Amino acid sequence: MINIIIADDHQLFRDGMKALISSQPDFLIIGSVGTGQELMDALERDTLPDIVLLDLSMPVMDGFEVLRQVKGKFRSVRFIVISMHEDGIYISKCVRSGAHGYLLKNTDNEELFTALRRVYSGEKYFNDEIKELMIQNLALEGNDYRPLTDRESEVLQHVSQGKTTKEIASILFVSIRTVETHRANMMKKLDVQNTAELISKATQLRLI
Amino acid sequence: MINIIIADDHQLFRDGMKALISSQPDFLIIGSVGTGQELMDALERDTLPDIVLLDLSMPVMDGFEVLRQVKGKFRSVRFIVISMHEDGIYISKCVRSGAHGYLLKNTDNEELFTALRRVYSGEKYFNDEIKELMIQNLALEGNDYRPLTDRESEVLQHVSQGKTTKEIASILFVSIRTVETHRANMMKKLDVQNTAELISKATQLRLI
DNA sequence: ATGAGTATCCGTATTTATACGGATGCCCAT
DNA sequence: ATGGGCATCCGTATAAATACGGATACTCAT
What we know:
Rossmann fold; 10 helices; alpha/beta; DNA-binding; homodimer; 2 domains; 5-stranded parallel β-sheet; elongated
């Protein structure tokens, strides 16, 4: 019997999920919580589930924070993220944070069951579409991805708003050469040829 | 009694919605369909509902196509779009296509009921968040928004990939001046100062 | 004490973008 | 026949970006 907790701030969703999952003989819903804090409390206090179905966008303590706090703590519990976000960056972030699976909220029933069973048996579950999104995101990041510094981010923000190097220098009270250097460094970090590609890529990477 | 049809390709969602809506004494689910075509057939054949809860991303005939086909046809039926997409462009497109309301799939129960009642009584229903997203999109479009021509879009694509005017001229077998003119015209249409802002705005407007 | 990273700034040069106009020809709707 | 929109191309000029290096000083971890 696979013990499952559902963590999502919408009762409708939890109820629907509970009804669906309970229809299968090998699944048992042992908890249904509406906040990250409730989930943490349940994990500390009660019988540990085999799997947590975890929404990302919960108030106060979101899914990412939950993953961060449980990291290395409840090792026997596996987390399948369920999210509306079909964005490679969210998915990559979840995978890095230790998620064992990722499903979109419009996943169909059979796939949900398959995911639950696969993750229960020790595998990770990411379907082809999810994999493709992750690959796209990693390809965007490139081989030697280094994050932008605070100043670079600031300059990038101004550039994306259409300001010239001269204008940015004036706003930040620095030399034109300083801004030029920051622009050049960003272009190197993101491996792009010019400003158009910089803005394009930075947008895709959610740096703007 | 408010008669309602639910149109969504995921049975779990339809079932959950049906259970929730049926819990209210003034609502009656008179149909539950999984495709746009089924919805069209139901509207042609059966008693018309007062309201259709319409998912956007259905296979073959999506929600936009449904709205387009019903435009001016079933005038007494009101459409509330239910979508995962919290994107001003989707929302604006729905409103332009005649939707009477727009809800995100993580809307809470009470708000769903409110929306159904308001739309039934002749109002439109868009909450503050949805309105804000629309406003942002309209602000982006600006005052005298004109769409890009095919050639402009083609040039824009190349520009966003980091190509210079010279390179684009070579690829398209036209003069450098031609590409220069296209770039200048796009910048005028989108009311931006330079290429960085062009790419930034075009991305937000989903032109790239 | 040392080294790496960050932020700052420089000289010189070339390439690219942008701006100010202007023009012709084709297609299509009126 | 006419006019508007689109795609094409031009001369001249300035502004901006990019590129090739180089440099100093501060902070923080080792």
